[in-house]
Write a structure and sequence with these properties.
The strands form four sheets. The chain has an eight-stranded mixed sheet, with helices on both faces. α5 links the parallel β4 and β5. It has 466 residues and is of the alpha/beta class. It is built from eleven helices and 18 strands.
Length: 466
């Protein structure tokens, strides 16, 4: 084929494709949508907070936590300079100082309990969580809660060794440093909903601190709309030799462990295996990061956690709360759960030198963007149902009205069944039902989210059949 004929053919094909696209858009617009979603807005306030996140502060926190020698759950509770007791008191004092800047909106407490003897606890042992709560300012939203956590305790090879040096720089001083830094940055700002900055203990012995706290919340009927566990978020050079400063793994569980047989049957009918509340929450985090921290890619992993591992989102998931585990993309197991030593020229142990403080700050920014969007945005719509009792080429959805005074309306989102992220958005106004004409639920997955007057969007709610 000559270059001229090839060029003419290319132009003809391009024109045909453009005409088809124009026709499709016109047809969609006539039926009220669809439109592509471009992510949540990033306000000046959020930009200010993102710019305030300091890798130098994070470095100082990690260095201080490592300086306690060991933070093992079985280490000293009374030594003023070494062990879990000294580290807990220091974290408590840092959060108290942060709360003093909040205008009374943040409260800080130690939650102490005695863990009975068990597999990894040879004797009954005191465990203390430090909890800072930034109370929501909108009465209609203040009971809605988001939890971000890191765990304070550390360990070496022997999980019962509470005396050897266990600096725990990456696991998990990195997560605690991110939590403390976000508490500092966000304390002076107001949010509609409540944010909890949790520093758990007893994670390495069996997530005892988070089990206790999640159980308390469940017993109190708390509305935990999202939980982020930041555990091992500081190393960017994996044992596989790959240096990665731009990906953050976010582990998101599928069907709930509390799922009943009837709920499982409904899920199979809807094809909602990838639309559990944790996975909708993970999609929200990804969109928030794309808009606010574009250099970071949120890499969603469709699992609760890595093989043979778990952390503090687990107890929240077990209570029915949507939780996510955030961690670095490529781990180096020589620097986790290891005695500090040099062996045949290889350095073992969780040392400061292996932490990339700038990366921890970037991960903290991802958390901040998501938390700010969640806590300043509306609640996810409740009671979302799709009409499934009739054969129709349209898709009809309905939901319960939100109660926020600054609610602007709702959006219907949809995607192809084999796509991981929402592809299209239809703004439908402040209504509680809508029919999407000419697009069948047989071929697509649908969801509904709320939007406030500032453009903040909620997490998507996946429907059940009506």
């Amino acid at each position: 084929m000559s270059k001229l004929r090839y060029a003419l053919l290319a132009v003809t094909c391009a024109a045909a494709l453009a005409a088809a696209a124009t026709l499709a858009f016109a047809t969609s617009a006539a039926s009220g949508g669809p439109r592509h979603h471009h992510g949540p807005p990033v306000s000046k306030d959020v930009r200010h907070m993102l710019n305030d996140v300091s890798s130098h502060n994070i470095q100082r926190t990690i260095e201080k936590l490592a300086s306690f020698g060991t933070r093992h759950t079985l280490s000293s509770q009374t030594d003023p300079n070494r062990g879990i007791g000294a580290a807990t008191q220091w974290v408590y004092e840092q959060l108290q100082a942060t709360a003093a800047t909040s205008g009374g909106r943040m409260t800080v407490e130690k939650q102490t309990f005695v863990q009975p003897a068990g597999t990894r606890i040879p004797v009954p042992t005191q465990i203390t969580n430090v909890i800072a709560t930034l109370h929501g300012s909108q009465p209609e939203s203040a009971s809605r809660m988001y939890v971000i956590s890191g765990h304070l305790d550390s360990r070496v090879t022997d999980v019962l060794n509470g005396t050897s040096d266990a600096p725990g720089a990456d696991d998990d001083a990195s997560g605690v440093a991110a939590v403390l830094e976000l508490a500092r940055v966000m304390a002076t700002h107001k949010f509609d909903a409540t944010i909890v900055y949790a520093v758990f203990s007893g994670e390495e012995q069996g997530t005892f601190g988070s089990i206790n706290y999640a159980g308390r919340l469940k017993a109190a009927g708390a509305n935990v709309a999202g939980m982020f566990s930041n555990d091992i978020i500081g190393n960017t050079l994996g044992q596989n030799g790959v240096r990665d400063r731009h990906n953050l793994r976010v582990f998101a569980e599928g069907p709930s462990p509390q799922e009943t047989p009837q709920q499982a049957a409904t899920r199979r009918t809807m094809g909602g295996e990838n639309d559990s509340p944790p996975r909708e929450l993970a999609r929200f985090v990804r969109e928030a990061a794309q808009a606010a921290v574009p250099k970071m890619n949120v890499w969603i992993i469709y699992r609760r956690d890595r093989f043979l591992r778990g952390t503090d989102d687990g107890p929240f998931l077990d209570q029915g709360y949507p939780g996510l585990r955030m961690t670095e993309p490529n781990e180096d197991y020589r620097h986790e759960h290891q005695d500090v030593r040099d062996e045949n020229g290889v350095e073992f142990g969780d040392r400061l030198k292996f932490v990339d403080f700038d990366y921890v700050a970037d991960v903290a920014q991802v958390n901040l963007a998501a938390l700010a969007g969640l806590a300043d945005g509306p609640a996810a719509p409740s009671g979302v149902k799709v009409e499934a009792g009739t054969l129709t080429v349209d898709t009809s959805l309905e939901w319960q009205p939100n109660t926020e005074p600054d609610l602007a309306g709702y959006e219907i989102v949809y995607r192809e069944t084999n796509m991981p992220y929402w592809q299209h958005t239809i703004p439908v106004g402040n209504v509680t039902s809508f029919t999407v004409k000419g697009i069948t639920k047989d071929n697509f997955l649908f969801g509904v989210r709320a939007v406030d007057t500032d453009g903040n969007r909620s997490v998507v709610t996946f429907p059940v059949p009506k």
